[in-house]
Amino acid sequence: MQWRLAALSVCVAAVLLGSSGLRAADVVPQPHPEMLPADFLDCVGKQTKARWRTLYRQPPPTPSSDRRKVAFTLGGLVADAYLTLQAGHAQQFKNNNQEVLNYARVLGLAEKITPDILAEGKMAEAEDWPMLRERLVQKQGVISNLLKEQRDDDLAILVDLGMWLRLLEISSELVVGNTALENKSLCIGSKTLLDEMIARYERLTEAARTDETIAQVGSILQMLQRHWTAAEGDPSDEVVTMTHEKLRYLMGKLTMK
């Protein structure tokens, strides 16, 4: 199964065509829950003129024995793979994939995804980015299915949440301080995307949701939901800054310490 959130229709602001003189090709689809990660970053890049290589971060520490935290961090590393794909940076992609393998090993997945890791490395060396993009989506499905086969549904959800929250950390970094950007909602992808992430969090078992570390994910998601609901599509600079700071704090706390 591809790592999508709930399937919803694409929303495109068609009214802009008549009011602003934009051509159909100029209208950029807005992020929505059905988007795959690479499509989401495409959407963000078209609206922010992103310099992807400036958004890299340090490799995570040696994996801990906390499988929930490992799963969340693995999700963040999957997001970083998409980031390096956007940057077209073969060596960084391969370095990140080694970290993916390290964290997958703790979850008992290394043996089954090693062939994918090796194949992706060769594609990166050959700069076959379109095929690599497809393979990343396939690997997401493999990881999710393997975890579910192990009856680790909580871990599958946490990988998914870790991936999307890292993607939102990346997009919010591009929004903060960008006064010319009209679509500040890129901080959260979209309100619908944020709501769906909360719904996925709530499908975790009670044991996972009450875990001291994982509970922070729910708390911050719910805080962002309150602020962005109140903003009604027109967030202040303070809301944008707060959003980025909360996402950066969460990803740092759960994946870099």
Describe it for me?
- This protein has 257 residues and is an all-alpha fold.
- It contains eleven helices and no strands.
- α2 (37-48) crosses α3, α2 packs parallel to α7 and α3 packs antiparallel against α6.
Please give a quick description of this structure.
This protein is mainly alpha-helical.
Structural descriptors:
257 residues; mainly alpha
Compile the SSE list and pairings.
Blueprint: H1 15-20, H2 37-48, H3 67-87, H4 90-106, H5 110-125, H6 129-149, H7 153-175, H8 191-202, H9 206-209, H10 215-231, H11 237-255
Helix pairs in contact: 2-3, 2-7, 3-4, 3-6, 3-7, 4-5, 5-6, 6-7, 7-11, 8-10, 10-11
Query: Measured on Cα atoms, how large is the radius of gyration?
Result: 18 Å
**Main sheet specs:** none
Order of helices and strands: HHHHHHHHHHH
Residue fraction in strands: under 5%
Percentage of residues assigned to helices: 55-70%
SS content category: mainly alpha
Kindly state the number of beta strands: 0
Per DSSP, the total helix count is 11
Shape, please?
globular
Q: What's the pLDDT, averaged over the residues?
A: 87
